[in-house]
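User: Predict structure, ligand zinc ion.
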Amino acid sequence: MSLNCVYCKKPVFGTSGVTVPGSGPAHQHCYQAQAALARTFQALDISQLSDDELLDLQDMVLAEVNDRRRKGEGGGDSEIELF
Ligand SMILES: [Zn+2]
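Assistant: Predicted complex:
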């Protein structure tokens, strides 16, 4: 049985292959090269988001960063202990 790599389309043999969830078999080196290039966070591929969704995500990330920074500056109920 031979299966083709989802990235380079060449057959994947034996133990050098990995299975990409939702896609199929791939060469380990192809998968690693793709993973290094892809703008994914956990299961989210942000290059697949629309412009509006991306801006929403950006706002959300900035709000979270600001919120944590505020807490980190000793704003009362901080869970982080600074030494
Ligand atoms: Zn490949």
